[in-house]
Amino acid sequence: MIAEHSSLEISIEGVKFWLLAKRGLYWPAQQTLFVADTHFGKEVTFRKLGVAVPSSSTQGTLSAIVQMIAQCQASRLVLLGDMFHARSSISPGVRESLDIFFATHKQLRCTLVLGNHDKGLFTRTAGWPIEIVASGTLIDTVSIAHFPQEPSCGSRLLLCGHLHPAYRFSSKIDSVGKLPCFWLSNRQLVLPALGEFTGTQIIYPSKSDHTWVIVEDQIMRV
Amino acid sequence: MIIVRISRFRISLSAGKVLLSFCVHQSTSCRAAPLPTNELPSLNVKHRTPRQIIFDYFESKGQKPFRFQLDAWKAYQAGSSGLVHSATGTGKTLAVWLGPILEWLRQNKNQDQWNPKSPPALRVLWITPLKALAVDTENALRAPLESMRLPWRLESRTGDSRASIKAKQLKQLPTALITTPESLCLLLTHAPLQTQLSLIEGVIVDEWHELLGSKRGIQVELALARLRKLSPSLRTWGLSATLGNLTEAGQALVGCESTKPCKIIRGTTKKRLHIESLIPKPMERFPWSGHIGTRMVPQVSREIEQVKSALVFANTRSQTEIWYQHLLQHRPDWAGQIAVHHGSLDASVREWVENGLRNGRLRAVVCTSSLDLGVDFSAVDLVLQIGSPKGSARLLQRAGRSGHQPGAESRLIFIPTNALELIELAAARDAIEQGKMEARPLLSKPLDVLVQHVVTIAIGGGFTSENLLQEVRTTQAYRFLTSDEWQWILNFVVHGGSSLGAYPEFHRVELDDDRYHVSTQRIMTLHRFNIGTIVSDTAMKVKYMRGGTMGTVEESFLSKLKRGDRFLFAGKLVELVIIQDNVAYVRRSKGKPNSIPRWTGGRMPLSSELSMALRGKIHEASQGRLTGPEMRSLKSLFDLQQRWSLLPQTDELLIEMIGERSHYQLFLFPFEGRLVHEGMASVLAYRLTRQQPTTLSMACNDHGIVLQSPHPIAIEKAISEGLFSTDRLQEDIHQSMNATEMAKRQFRQIARVSGLIQAGLPGQRKSTSYVQASSNLFFDAFCEYDPTNLLLEQCRREVLEQQLEWTRLDRALKRLQQAKIRLTYPTRVTPFAFSLMVDKLRERVSSETLAQRIARMQKALENKAGK
Question: Helix H segments across chain A?
Answer without folding.
Answer: 42-48, 57-72, 92-104
